[in-house]
Amino acid sequence: MKRLKAAGKKAMVCAALVGGLVSFSGVNDVEAASSYTLYTTGSTTDKVTTASFGQVYMGGSTDVDKAMEWMIQKANGGDFLIIRATGSNGYNQYLYDLAQSIGKPLNSVNTVVVTNLTQAGSDSSLIDRINKAEAIFFAGGNQADYVEFLEGSPALTALNSRIQNVPFGGTSAGAMIQGDHIYDAISAGSKTLDSLTALRNPYSSLISFTDYLIQTPHNNNIQTDTHFEQRDRMGRLLTFMARNIQDGEETGTSAKGIGLNEQSALLVEKDGTAKVVTQPGAVNAAVYMAKSNQAPTRCVSGSSLTYNNISIYKLKDGNTFNLSTWTGSGGLSYTLNVNSGTISSSTGKVYGN
């Protein structure tokens, strides 16, 4: 469901092989079809294993090795599928080698680069790969591409079915699509929405949403944002939450948000328990869990946002959280208020400490 229709979705220009199927034998294979290019490292023969659910929200920049190791273990020696709309096969050898290094070798790592966003969602061969994957991960890029590829498609139906039983995740744009509510970046086009713009006008023409795309056991009521503290995105996450309430998608007490700093990941188990892992050497690695306690006082077009009493729980490496009860352990609890577009914090600092 969309809340603001854009005049047109972002077009993707991609230099890729198109036309008939092309393949090359060996450990690293490349296949190109009319809607996607496939890169395979490892076996080209499917292997069926018993995987287990897990969800990874990752904040962007350098990938968190511990999060990928967690997904690999849950994939149980099966086939790991990367989905992206730009880029190439950068994940393949990294994941294949990482699995070997922890004694949990994968049968294969496959990267699908979607080259035709309007056709790939109905491509039977791509849907088959989703159905057979023992782990699925969305790379970074532009979430508008993923929305265009998935929304209303058979591929989305297959994805939502498959990820109930296998590890699933994404980084940057691949994490932006994982909540109930997605800032889809469609109306923004090539422009970047910053916190100041969002707080000054919650109905800025740069803001558009797609709702209820991905379905996992514990992503209800959630809006995500990535590259969080590094790009000062607290203001826009709070604006998104206020919009979710104002637009009738959430109540004053049900809206939630997850803000993910770079090189930081939240690992969610099927029972809703979660932990934070970070990449060694990361600066300001953290995850922020936000919850609304009341409706915004003012959230209208052309006026700055007023929205108070938002609970924040800041998690660092090793801290835990329960998404079912929305409570944490080991982290920092504080409160944010937004008055006429200006954020204040109970700790004196927007990002806690």
From TrEMBL:
GO molecular function: serine-type peptidase activity
UniProtKB keywords: Hydrolase, Protease, Serine protease, Signal
Top-level lineage group: Bacteria
Record protein name field: Peptidase
InterPro entries membership: Class_I_gatase-like, Peptidase_S51
Signal sequence, start to end: 1-25
Source organism (scientific name): Metabacillus indicus (Bacillus indicus)
One Pfam family recorded for the sequence: Peptidase_S51
Stretches assigned to coiled coil: none
Listed GO biological process terms: proteolysis
Family: Belongs to the peptidase S51 family.
